[in-house]
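Mods, move this if it's the wrong board.
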Amino acid sequence: MAATTTATRKTETNDTFDKARNYWDRNNKTISIIGLVILLLAGGYLGYKYFIQEPNERKAAEAMFKAEEYYRMDSLEKALNGDGLNAGFLKIVDKYGGTSSGNLARFYAGSILLQQGQFSRAAKHLSEFETDAKQIQARAYKLTGDAFAEQGKNKEALDYYKKAAHHFEKDEVAASDYLFTAAYFAQRVMNDKEEAIELFKELKKKYSKTEKGFEVDKYLAQLGVYNIED
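Not the wrong board. Structure tokens:
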């Protein structure tokens, strides 16, 4: 019985080996190509990371240092366009836009362009900015709304004001301010009574204890709403 079992196992092993060998004979070229592609992709990724991405991150961070210094000094033109020796935010975005510093430069550039009245360019940079820092992202949404509003793009502006208000509701002061901006914009600029009432009611419900929350009743009264249902 033991001899039979051993023979059976040997036969099964041989069959498995034969199947594997046949499979390899039929597909060795495809398998080799796939393996080569994987190696090339892995090598390409590592090469990009260590020889392109990380050096660019360092260079962008170094360039940001001077631009941010000018920004803090309120030398906005130099912060935006550089001083002839050091790059400004626009150059950093152009050259290192794929880095974290280049992404932050979009926020700075957009906020400066907004102050300079270059609203279309401001909206472009601000709308492309993304961060996991929710307070900063909410602020970027609000500024993007301002840039669209200045261009008369009211729907886009309102959308961004609402995004700002809803992005980080734990910051009640900022969120209530953004929500008030959205409601006021809907009322006074878009003449959208229903939208304004809905947003003012939301402000009253969520942030009644904030400065903007205390002001809601008079704006709702202007819209003919005197009783707020929970």
